[in-house]
Amino acid sequence: MKCIMVMFDSLNRHMISPYGCDWTHTPNFARLAKKTLTFDKSYVCSMPCMPARRDLHTGRPSFIHRGWSPLEPFDVSVPRMLKESGVHTHLVTDHYHYYEDGGVHYHTKYNTWEFFRGQEGDPWIGQVAEPDVPENINRKGRPQDWINREYMDTDAKLPITQSFNAGLDYIKRNMNDDNWFLQLETFDPHEPFFTHREHKDRYAEHYDNYTGPKFDWPGYEKVTETPDQVEHAKYNYASLLSLCDKKLGDILDLMDANNMWDDTMLVVCTDHGFMFGEHDCWAKNWMPLYEEVAHTPFFVWDPRYGKRNERRQALVQPCLDLAPTLLGLFNLEIPTTMTGKDLAPAIADDTPVRDAAIFGYHGCRVNITDGKYVYMRGNHKAGVQMYQYGLTAPGMKDTSIPNGVTMMTDEDKWDFMGNYPILQMPANQSTVDGETAFNNSTGDMLFDVTADPAQKNPLDDKQVIDQLSKRMSELLGEVDAPAETYERLGLAAV
Fold first, then answer.
1. What is this structure's pTM?
2. Domain limits at 181?
């Protein structure tokens, strides 16, 4: 058996045709839906980028115990398990967060890997002189990004193109061999929404008529731009999305030309979505995890079952569930530490694999959905000190040890962390208390996302809230949530 996993970053389900969008140019996503199963109830787990990838390796929610973090020495890693069992694993990525302090230890779990430079603020091109920056609305812009763009003046030089070409080369080189797994990732369509004119030409009417400043990098903040500027950002995303669609088509073409559908699983997924002004919000991270971010696109072809061009209603969490699903595909035992679900029953005939799913950021709201309702539970007790647990310090670019670190006792440690001496590190309390840009820690909200998918009408249904709160407690217990999580959420440990 073989498996190709194509993972985009910040892929919004509401912007591609299989989920009902009729104005973006995504013919290959439409083609993909005909060749695979389309999952209608797919949700994130740990947010954002690297927490999601830790889930992907370990098959358990990272956000309960950590924020952004390296892969820990005690972590079960599915790519490593596959490698050790004789399945060749290969990572192709332009996701530069792997090469920051808070993203290390991931790529070395694969047999082989390739990395391509230039996305976002990747410290790639060394240039002392300030770049020539055009007039733009770019609160998150970085000089390094504008320097990098100068060296990507053709599609061939873009990191996404180089990544997909490398992925295609790997498939061509190995298609006649068995037992391999390719994880092909691109940072796109993550912001900044940088593309060349050929992709913008798919939306020529907009670009011919827009006269405002450049705007391809919304900030993580409230919308303050004019409606025309908001629309322009959406078209910039759409242009980049169409480039992603073109690269996806290259994978489908190769599989078609070589009849790979008989023995090769194909998975297309993302880590999270993106907000385009809904709820007056941009992007991700700082607002509650609304549907535009949390409810994700997900497609699977599994040659064992041969089901295609069908919808699935089973509630799934791809970044959590792909770990046990891959182990099942290659006939390997699923470790007891994994709480993700093997998706084989859902793939075969839409048999449910779970009745509810939790998701969130560390120290912020804990969210739960049963596929009909989404309940967002914030702090019910102020001032509860939260901690991060592990052997390495948390952080994205700075992993210095915070003040107040203590060592967990053997009696307090959880089985999934093994016999290592575990650090208990104080979290940023201003984040937990909702005083920073991640101002999503306080206040509860309940939505019926089947009747109100735009989440415009919060409900006050005590019976549903009580039911989902109880189920949240149970799921937190299944993943060994620390005592302070229950305390701040006002939940009884189960």
1. 0.96
2. 2-349
